[in-house]
Specification:
With about 60 residues, the chain is mainly α. Helices cover about 55% and strands about 0% of the residues.
């Protein structure tokens, strides 16, 4: 079994997304940058519309988070 040292996390990370990314900090920075760009930059959709699309796609894919 592989063992990877994780960076401690002080937020709710029950899905382990932050913990998994902590093994590769550059990946986490890029992931967060992409998320912020998609969800918060100006565009044709409001933020709540973008969140709803994410919610529906996650539900359709059976995601629990």
């Amino acid at each position: 079994m592989a063992w990877i040292q994780y960076v401690p996390c002080d937020v709710d990370d029950s899905d382990n997304i932050i913990r998994i990314h902590s093994a590769h900090a550059d990946v986490m920075r890029h992931h967060l940058g992409l998320y912020r760009t998609l969800m918060h930059n100006p565009g044709p959709l409001r933020h709540d519309q973008r969140e709803m699309i994410g919610l529906m796609v996650s539900a359709a894919n059976g995601c629990v988070y």
